[in-house]
Design brief:
The protein is mainly alpha-helical. It has a single domain (about 25-340), classed as 3-Layer(aba) Sandwich (Rossmann fold), CATH 3.40.50.620. About 50% of the residues lie in helices and about 5% in strands. It contains 16 helices and 5 strands. It has helices at about 25-30, 30-55, 70-85, 100-115, 125-135, 145-165, 190-195, 200-205, 210-215, 245-255, 260-265, 265-270, 270-285, 290-300, 305-320, 325-335; strands spanning about 65, 90-95, 115-120, 170, 230-235. It has a 5-stranded parallel sheet, sandwiched between helices. Strand 2 (about 90-95), helix 4 (about 100-115) and strand 3 (about 115-120) form a beta-alpha-beta unit. The chain starts with about 25 loop residues before the first helix and ends in a 24-residue tail after the last helix.
Amino acid sequence: MRRCKRCLLPAAVPGADFDGAGVCRPCREYAPGSAQQEDAGRAAREADLEAAIASSRGQGRYDVLVPFSGGKDSAWMLYKLVVEYKLKVLAFTVDVNIPPVAWKNIRQTLAKLNIDHISYSPPAELYRKLFAYLLRNQEARGATYTVSYVYAPLFEGDAIQLALEKDIPLVMAGYSPGQPEPERMLYEFSRPLIERTDWTPPQLKHGGQFTDDELSRFFNPLRYPAGTHFPRYLAPFHAWSYNQDEAMRSVVAHGLIATSRNASPIFSNYPINWLLMFSDLKNFGYNPYAPEFATLIREGKAKLSEWRIMAPVVDTMVKRCWFLGRHTTEHLKWLDMTPDELLITLPRGAYDPVIDTAA
């Protein structure tokens, strides 16, 4: 696979537009001025974050709720909130498709920081049915986008509902810059999204495959009484300075995660991601996470030398269903699917909820 020599963006990514020297268009157009502008935006978000933390402190039993899946970023964020900010934190895990290494990270981080934790195990059959439906009926942006942006709102909604039950004013997610897509969240979920929008994906509502009880798993603020005070949902790493390598070093150095291997997203991420990558490589010809990592490399937040080796290794594991890529075969069996059923059948945005922007 041909990749940009500066950021490793694959040539197959739309808009890559390599020049004769093997440099992609995003790298050619990247300028220090844009980084300075982003720094100014980050500073404004950081000031807001500090104010939000100050206003939430001491208002109840917990100052903040943190969804925690055992990855390096959420572990590092927990450390900063508990040790540096000395906040009262409740960690929350939705136990779906979390690998053993992530559970080991969760237990070690919780013990090290001595914080309260709630784990919720929803019905596994619903998720099996949901994943199979989504992979057979992907929207135009492919498997990773389709599954992630239907699956993530489930546990994000669970976090909002728990925060409401516990009267916690802030929910903080360990999303790194670029996660999720800026159109969905840049530092904070909008108030219209949290206060007035049914999160149930339209395609699932109208597809006829899911019962009302199953669809009720999605967060819907309209079920709550008028005047309900919903928590803010923030991504602190969109405000704090972020560096992927620093995150991996810090969680190991502070004893939150045992080894750098355990801190790597390659090992600690959801196992179904390997099937999603397999599908997108099959349908698009490039790894869906490549643009995100290329951006981090371009901005100096991830090492070119490291990912020059790891990117092709990951793609090889995905394509051959080898080593960690075995999760592709395991999940196809679990979902009773074949690779030929990994199909894009729906237009872009088929699962996106319609945000109520009315004043």
